[in-house]
Amino acid sequence: MSGSLIAILIAVGVVVILGIYVWATYNSLVTLRVRVDEAWSDITVQLKRRADLIPSLVETVKGYASHEKGVFEAVTAARAETISAQGPAEASVAENHMQQALKSIFAVAEAYPQLQASQNFLQLQGELVDTENKIQASRRFYNGGVREFNTKIQVFPNTIFVRGMGFKEREFFEVDDLASISEPPRIQF
Protein backbone atom coordinates (compact mmCIF):
# COMPACT_ATOMS: atom_id res chain seq x y z
CA MET A 1 0.00 0.00 0.00
CA SER A 2 1.19 3.44 -0.79
CA GLY A 3 1.40 6.28 1.68
CA SER A 4 -1.32 8.28 -0.05
CA LEU A 5 -3.78 5.36 0.12
CA ILE A 6 -3.14 4.99 3.87
CA ALA A 7 -3.70 8.74 4.33
CA ILE A 8 -6.99 8.54 2.40
CA LEU A 9 -8.16 5.56 4.49
CA ILE A 10 -7.28 7.39 7.70
CA ALA A 11 -9.12 10.53 6.49
CA VAL A 12 -12.18 8.45 5.53
CA GLY A 13 -12.05 6.68 8.91
CA VAL A 14 -11.93 10.02 10.76
CA VAL A 15 -14.85 11.37 8.72
CA VAL A 16 -16.88 8.20 9.41
CA ILE A 17 -16.13 8.39 13.14
CA LEU A 18 -17.08 12.09 13.24
CA GLY A 19 -20.26 11.34 11.28
CA ILE A 20 -21.24 8.60 13.72
CA TYR A 21 -20.50 10.91 16.66
CA VAL A 22 -22.63 13.74 15.21
CA TRP A 23 -25.45 11.30 14.37
CA ALA A 24 -25.43 9.78 17.88
CA THR A 25 -25.24 13.21 19.55
CA TYR A 26 -28.09 14.58 17.42
CA ASN A 27 -30.32 11.59 18.19
CA SER A 28 -29.61 11.78 21.92
CA LEU A 29 -30.41 15.51 21.94
CA VAL A 30 -33.68 14.90 20.11
CA THR A 31 -34.56 12.24 22.69
CA LEU A 32 -33.77 14.62 25.56
CA ARG A 33 -35.74 17.45 23.93
CA VAL A 34 -38.79 15.22 23.58
CA ARG A 35 -38.41 14.15 27.22
CA VAL A 36 -38.30 17.80 28.33
CA ASP A 37 -41.37 18.61 26.21
CA GLU A 38 -43.19 15.65 27.74
CA ALA A 39 -42.25 16.79 31.24
CA TRP A 40 -43.52 20.31 30.52
CA SER A 41 -46.75 18.79 29.28
CA ASP A 42 -47.07 16.91 32.60
CA ILE A 43 -46.68 20.20 34.48
CA THR A 44 -49.35 21.91 32.38
CA VAL A 45 -51.72 18.99 32.97
CA GLN A 46 -51.30 19.33 36.74
CA LEU A 47 -51.64 23.12 36.61
CA LYS A 48 -54.85 22.69 34.60
CA ARG A 49 -56.13 20.14 37.11
CA ARG A 50 -55.53 22.59 39.92
CA ALA A 51 -57.13 25.41 37.93
CA ASP A 52 -60.20 23.20 37.47
CA LEU A 53 -60.44 22.64 41.22
CA ILE A 54 -60.23 26.34 42.09
CA PRO A 55 -63.77 27.39 41.01
CA SER A 56 -65.31 24.63 43.11
CA LEU A 57 -63.17 25.61 46.08
CA VAL A 58 -64.07 29.28 45.66
CA GLU A 59 -67.79 28.50 45.44
CA THR A 60 -67.62 26.32 48.54
CA VAL A 61 -65.86 29.00 50.55
CA LYS A 62 -68.14 31.73 49.12
CA GLY A 63 -71.12 29.95 50.61
CA TYR A 64 -69.70 30.56 54.07
CA ALA A 65 -67.75 33.78 53.59
CA SER A 66 -69.47 35.71 50.82
CA HIS A 67 -68.16 39.07 52.08
CA GLU A 68 -64.51 38.12 51.32
CA LYS A 69 -64.78 39.45 47.75
CA GLY A 70 -61.12 40.57 47.46
CA VAL A 71 -59.83 37.09 48.26
CA PHE A 72 -62.08 35.49 45.65
CA GLU A 73 -61.03 38.02 43.02
CA ALA A 74 -57.34 37.35 43.76
CA VAL A 75 -57.85 33.60 43.45
CA THR A 76 -59.75 34.02 40.18
CA ALA A 77 -57.05 36.32 38.77
CA ALA A 78 -54.28 33.90 39.82
CA ARG A 79 -56.18 31.02 38.19
CA ALA A 80 -56.51 32.96 34.92
CA GLU A 81 -52.81 33.85 35.01
CA THR A 82 -51.86 30.20 35.55
CA ILE A 83 -54.00 29.02 32.65
CA SER A 84 -52.61 31.62 30.24
CA ALA A 85 -48.92 31.23 31.22
CA GLN A 86 -46.68 30.37 28.29
CA GLY A 87 -43.42 28.67 29.20
CA PRO A 88 -41.51 28.23 32.43
CA ALA A 89 -40.80 31.91 33.11
CA GLU A 90 -44.45 32.99 32.96
CA ALA A 91 -45.54 29.84 34.79
CA SER A 92 -43.10 30.66 37.59
CA VAL A 93 -44.61 34.09 38.12
CA ALA A 94 -48.14 32.69 37.91
CA GLU A 95 -47.24 29.92 40.36
CA ASN A 96 -46.10 32.49 42.91
CA HIS A 97 -49.37 34.42 42.57
CA MET A 98 -51.41 31.22 42.84
CA GLN A 99 -49.65 30.14 46.02
CA GLN A 100 -50.33 33.53 47.62
CA ALA A 101 -53.99 33.39 46.56
CA LEU A 102 -54.44 29.87 47.92
CA LYS A 103 -52.91 30.91 51.24
CA SER A 104 -55.45 33.74 51.41
CA ILE A 105 -58.43 31.51 50.71
CA PHE A 106 -57.33 28.95 53.29
CA ALA A 107 -56.80 31.75 55.80
CA VAL A 108 -60.41 32.80 55.21
CA ALA A 109 -61.55 29.20 55.58
CA GLU A 110 -59.86 28.92 58.98
CA ALA A 111 -62.19 31.62 60.32
CA TYR A 112 -65.31 29.53 59.58
CA PRO A 113 -65.66 26.33 61.65
CA GLN A 114 -68.75 25.26 59.68
CA LEU A 115 -66.73 25.43 56.47
CA GLN A 116 -63.90 23.44 58.00
CA ALA A 117 -66.41 20.69 58.79
CA SER A 118 -67.92 20.69 55.30
CA GLN A 119 -67.34 17.37 53.54
CA ASN A 120 -67.21 19.12 50.17
CA PHE A 121 -64.53 21.53 51.40
CA LEU A 122 -62.49 18.74 52.95
CA GLN A 123 -62.63 16.73 49.72
CA LEU A 124 -61.58 19.74 47.63
CA GLN A 125 -58.81 20.50 50.10
CA GLY A 126 -57.50 16.93 49.83
CA GLU A 127 -57.59 17.02 46.03
CA LEU A 128 -55.79 20.34 46.00
CA VAL A 129 -53.02 19.10 48.30
CA ASP A 130 -52.65 15.99 46.11
CA THR A 131 -52.44 18.16 43.00
CA GLU A 132 -49.82 20.41 44.61
CA ASN A 133 -47.73 17.31 45.34
CA LYS A 134 -48.08 16.22 41.71
CA ILE A 135 -47.05 19.67 40.50
CA GLN A 136 -43.91 19.48 42.64
CA ALA A 137 -43.08 16.02 41.29
CA SER A 138 -43.69 17.13 37.71
CA ARG A 139 -41.53 20.20 38.24
CA ARG A 140 -38.66 18.06 39.55
CA PHE A 141 -38.97 15.69 36.56
CA TYR A 142 -39.02 18.63 34.14
CA ASN A 143 -36.03 20.35 35.74
CA GLY A 144 -34.10 17.06 35.70
CA GLY A 145 -34.75 16.70 31.98
CA VAL A 146 -33.74 20.31 31.37
CA ARG A 147 -30.53 19.74 33.34
CA GLU A 148 -29.62 16.71 31.19
CA PHE A 149 -30.52 18.48 27.94
CA ASN A 150 -28.61 21.67 28.80
CA THR A 151 -25.57 19.71 30.00
CA LYS A 152 -25.48 17.71 26.75
CA ILE A 153 -25.59 20.95 24.75
CA GLN A 154 -22.92 22.71 26.80
CA VAL A 155 -20.25 20.00 27.06
CA PHE A 156 -17.27 20.00 24.74
CA PRO A 157 -17.18 19.15 21.84
CA ASN A 158 -20.99 19.28 21.51
CA THR A 159 -21.03 23.00 22.22
CA ILE A 160 -19.14 23.57 18.96
CA PHE A 161 -21.82 22.29 16.61
CA VAL A 162 -25.18 21.59 18.30
CA ARG A 163 -26.44 25.17 18.20
CA GLY A 164 -26.01 25.04 14.44
CA MET A 165 -28.43 22.10 14.46
CA GLY A 166 -31.10 24.19 16.15
CA PHE A 167 -30.67 23.12 19.78
CA LYS A 168 -30.91 25.79 22.47
CA GLU A 169 -30.81 25.54 26.23
CA ARG A 170 -34.16 25.35 28.01
CA GLU A 171 -35.31 27.32 31.04
CA PHE A 172 -35.72 25.67 34.40
CA PHE A 173 -39.13 25.96 36.05
CA GLU A 174 -38.13 28.02 39.04
CA VAL A 175 -40.54 29.98 41.14
CA ASP A 176 -39.68 33.53 42.18
CA ASP A 177 -40.69 33.00 45.80
CA LEU A 178 -39.25 29.59 46.69
CA ALA A 179 -40.70 29.74 50.21
CA SER A 180 -44.22 29.88 48.79
CA ILE A 181 -43.88 26.50 47.08
CA SER A 182 -41.46 24.67 49.30
CA GLU A 183 -44.35 22.54 50.48
CA PRO A 184 -48.02 22.16 49.63
CA PRO A 185 -50.37 24.70 51.19
CA ARG A 186 -50.78 23.92 54.87
CA ILE A 187 -54.29 23.64 56.04
CA GLN A 188 -54.65 23.45 59.78
CA PHE A 189 -58.00 23.22 61.51
From TrEMBL:
Transmembrane intervals: 6-26
- Membrane as a keyword of this entry, yes or no, is yes
> What Gene3D superfamilies has UniProt attached to this entry?
LemA-like domain
Q: What's the superkingdom here?
A: Bacteria
Membrane topology term reads: Single-pass membrane protein
The entry's localization annotation reads: Membrane
Q: What's an example GO cellular component term for this entry?
A: membrane
Q: Which UniProt keywords apply?
A: Membrane, Transmembrane, Transmembrane helix
Q: Which family does it belong to?
A: Belongs to the LemA family.
Name of the molecule in the record: LemA family protein
Q: Which organism is it from?
A: Leucobacter chromiisoli
- Could you read off the lineage of the organism from its UniProt record? Bacteria, Bacillati, Actinomycetota, Actinomycetes, Micrococcales
